[in-house]
Design brief:
heterodimer; A: alpha/beta; 6-stranded parallel sheet; B: 7 helices; extended
């Protein structure tokens, strides 16, 4: 009897498992839930550093992700752009990972702007608030150029100035006109799904404070950079996006906000709370359900195996 | 295009675009049932689209600005003066094209020239790159394992303290930190001992160390595998979001 039950538990039809997985990952999307989880140290540090940057400063933003890792990276990118827009910080966006990445970044900012305009907020405008510096196929070469001479690294890039309607040098834009070297940028962000995180640390270390935002699978290897002090902030996967959205809504170490015993800095929530919670908040509960399903199935499989062995031994 | 057709496209294009995405998503996930022609078709469609899109993106995002425009120069505009063309950039084209001789059995030596240049540049940078990558991590491995204060077992909270008070706390090693550092240093030594292949470790102590190192590595690999599963789930959730919310709820039902 034990063997029969054990064998059945080990041979549950995989189509049913897939169907349950599809259900547990899609139903919570219609009914968003909240998961009480404290932010990781890296996410809290990232938020604190970004909120301390003086208004009007420029950050260098490597957008090295495409739709293939949209689940992990888009939430991080959206959170960062919302903070930059709220804090009136400027961003110079480039990519060294994928030719599709600049277009994906532009489309995502357009989506954010559509919501901002609908909510009566000013759009985060190209040329005045951010510029797209394009894609560079050799990450090693381009990052070395950025570290050596930022102006030469992006020389000849042009964008349309909405005031004149002309294509103009990006260094004439409000974003880059006061930037001469990498240390003039307040922070360097890399949102990546590839090894450009490693290359960024190797090439840009000590030139300006670095922040990495990586996919879930890259989390363990990237934590080394954070704990050794090579980077000042780290967001991992959809949890990183969830942490940032939580901090954007509540603030860090402020009255009524998230309390971190390890990160002493304090940072207020965003001044405009409209549409703060987004992809991270939406995706985190289904992820918990999927992980619980996985754990339950592993337990059922192991119980089945144990029962089968017990049944075989009793014969 | 006649106005009626234009209106039709304006009204339906967003839904047609989303539906094409749903078609592709369902097609790719159909491999979960079994290998089938629908899956194969969508897979080839995706590869073709990605290849074609990347070629265009490479031109518009990279080559046009950083190579072609520099080579041919720019006419004067209201905002900027004319920029003369720098035709020396034309030399880069044959050098780059030499890389494609790797496909020729007879002339593949030509491909070694640009590859050699790239390797030379890369090797020169690697010394500093290696140190930037691993140097601070090696430095951080030297952790104090003895406490410097017994005022509190754990590190006191730094929230709301002055910078001087925070510095005072940071300068001390509390017993919980010392314990944590001891575990950290012991783990590193055990893992490193696992990779000592130059000579045989005969003593029980060293055998125990290598065994502990192997166990620590297995725990680390387990954590990495867990992260991999976590990310795959996130990608699935994103596809479910695309189908359930972006396509069905917002595209079909027009709900927000």
């Amino acid at each position: 009897m034990a063997k029969i039950i054990g064998d059945k538990l080990q041979s549950l039809p995989k189509y049913w498992l897939f169907a349950i997985l599809f259900l547990v990952t899609s139903i919570p999307l219609f009914h968003p839930l909240s998961v009480p989880t404290p932010p990781d140290d890296g996410s809290a540090d990232l938020y604190a550093h970004l909120m301390q940057v003086p208004a009007g400063s420029t950050i260098l933003l490597a957008s090295d992700w495409t739709n293939s890792t949209r689940g992990d990276s888009k939430g991080q990118f959206v959170a960062i752009i919302k903070i930059l827009a709220d804090r009136k910080l400027k961003a110079a966006i480039y990519s060294t990972a994928d030719a599709q990445a600049p277009r994906v970044a532009r489309d995502t900012i357009a989506e954010i702007n559509a919501v901002r305009v609908k909510n009566g907020q000013p759009p985060y405008s190209q040329w005045n608030d951010w510029v797209s510096l394009g894609f560079y196929p050799s990450a090693e070469g381009q990052l070395s150029s950025i570290a050596t001479d930022l102006r030469k690294a992006f020389a000849s890039k042009t964008e349309q100035n909405p005031a004149t309607g002309e294509q103009q040098d990006v260094f004439e834009s409000p974003v880059l006109q006061k930037i001469y070297k990498l240390s003039d940028c307040a922070l360097s962000f890399t949102i990546t799904a590839s090894k450009t995180s490693d290359l960024t640390v190797e090439r840009l270390l000590h030139k300006t404070p670095l922040v990495l935002m990586v996919t879930g699978v890259m989390g363990p290897q990237t934590q080394n950079y954070y704990y050794s002090g090579q980077i000042v902030g780290l967001a991992i996967g959809v949890k990183g996006a969830y942490d940032l959205e939580t901090l954007m809504a509540k603030g860090l170490n402020v009255p009524g906000g998230i309390v971190s015993t390890k990160i002493p800095a304090s940072a207020p929530p965003l001044s405009n709370q409209t549409d703060v919670q987004s992809i991270g908040t939406l995706f985190y509960p289904p992820l918990q359900f999927a992980l619980w399903l996985l754990i339950i199935m592993v337990v059922i499989g192991n119980v089945g195996m144990a029962l089968s062995k017990m049944g075989a031994q009793s014969k | 295009m006649n106005p009626g057709m234009q209106d039709f496209l304006n009204a339906w294009y967003p839904l047609i675009k989303l539906s094409a995405g749903v078609f592709g998503t369902v097609g790719l996930y159909s491999v979960l049932y079994k290998e089938n022609k629908f899956y194969r078709f969508v897979e080839h469609l995706y590869l073709g689209l990605a290849g074609g899109y990347s070629m265009i993106a490479l031109w518009t995002e990279t080559l046009d600005d950083t190579w072609y425009s520099k080579m041919v120069g720019k006419a004067a505009t209201h905002a900027d003066a004319a920029v003369p063309g720098m035709w020396a950039y034309a030399i880069l084209l044959p050098i780059g094209a030499m890389g494609y001789f790797v496909f020729s059995k007879k002339h593949n030596w030509i491909a070694k020239i640009p590859i050699g240049i790239i390797l030379g540049l890369y090797a020169g940078q690697q010394v500093q790159a290696w140190w930037n990558h691993y140097g601070p991590q090696i430095n951080k491995c030297m952790q104090p394992i003895f406490p410097t204060t017994l005022a509190s077992f754990t590190v006191p909270s730094k929230v709301g303290l002055s910078p001087a008070q925070v510095t005072a706390i940071n300068q001390n090693i509390y017993p919980s930190q010392a314990l944590s550092n001891l575990i950290f240093v012991a783990t590193i030594l055990c893992v490193l001992s696992y990779f000592l292949f130059s000579f045989e470790l005969k003593s029980k102590f060293f055998k125990g160390m290598t065994r502990t190192g192997r166990l620590a590595l297995m725990i680390g690999f387990g954590a990495i595998f867990g992260s991999t599963v976590l990310m795959r789930f996130t990608l699935l959730i994103d596809r479910m979001y695309f189908i359930c919310i972006e396509w069905f709820k917002q595209g079909i039902l027009h709900m927000r």
